[in-house]
Amino acid sequence: MGQQQSNDELLFQQVSHSDIDSIKSLRHEGAGLEWVDTEGRTPLILACTKSDLYDAAKTLVDLGSNVNAYRSGFNAGTPLHHAANRGLENTVKLLLSHGANPLVLNDDFQTPLEVARAKGYNNVVRAIESHICLFSGWMREFYGPRFLEFLAPELLSRRVWVVIVPTGSRDPTKPFKLELVVYASLEDAQPRMVMPLWKAKLEEPKQDQSDASVMIVDNSTSRKRARRGKGYISHGRRWVQVDRQIRLKLAAATKGDMKQLNWFCEACQGIPQPMNPPMFLKTYENIISDEFTPSVHPSRDEEAVEDGYIDYPSVDMAHVDISLPYANCEEKEYGGGSGVCVVCVDASCEAVCVPCGHVAGCISCLKEVKDKKMGCPVCRSKIDQVIKLYHV
């Protein structure tokens, strides 16, 4: 037992020297990878605190170190928390690619993303957000008095970087809560605005407008009625104190781009944009259960918020997982590759969507998608007809 403990500690020491050969040799002799020093650090946590220990971190991950090992106290958090705290972009990407959970909260109730924001590491912020976001992209934000929007709308809008990301939770069995995050530029680590979508109301755009926009109203702010003291409080002043809702009006980056605007609206309700499916949803099958995996909405007009969480409504096709089609379709040659239906991930691809031409699934699933007017599972284009293919 003493020898075993000595080997574990020796492996930890070799990590600090980035001695890859010694680490591999000790592991081959049976040394453990989760030994904890007096400061509460595992070998992987130690390797995630310095940029010159990246090779050691990669070796430990390849050898099977627990990328989600959590330690409380002075060095609280997971290896991902520590890498984010030091601004180690390459180490952060390494951990994420090997299953590190970016939604774990540390002792200060911060996710690795929030740690990176607080430290000002914009490169780490971008890396984590790109891994977990349901939507990201440039949009236009309208500001200023509403009546001026009709006179000079181009003067009252500014480009902003917008992302929609899930938030951390102490209870991973509950549905994800989503946040809308707005940055003034990609160089910023600190967002200009963070809006909890589970407390917000989304007023969807009108399709017939030449420059459609969407209004998001945050109802989470307090709305206290002004109390009447010794002096008189005018009706106007009382109204100002009552209406404290935060309103955000956004339009697509390019005027008239309804596709981007619709993707944004769908992401606000838990549906990832098809061109950028979050890696997080594909990686954490052990964390995301069928109860709170974002699924296709039968109607975006339905209320989807209950008890502070986004409750993704189910449809008749209960087995549909929206993260799977867009994760796999772009990598296949339709009609070839694995040839598996991207909807049920069970039957073979045997039908084509018309007019887009994507051979995306089995005849029954695609007909049901068409009947529900959901659009092609690959490109979201309207499906006019589903035709079964016959191979000779």
Automatic annotation (TrEMBL):
The keyword Metal-binding applies. It comes from the Eukaryota. Residues 341-380 form the RING-type domain. GO terms for molecular function: zinc ion binding. SMART domains: ANK. ANK repeats lie at residues 39-72, 75-107. It holds the Pfam family zf-C3HC4_3. PROSITE patterns: ANK_REP_REGION (PS50297), ANK_REPEAT (PS50088), ZF_RING_2 (PS50089). Keywords: ANK repeat, Metal-binding, Repeat, Zinc, Zinc-finger. This is RING-type domain-containing protein. It comes from Thlaspi arvense (Field penny-cress).
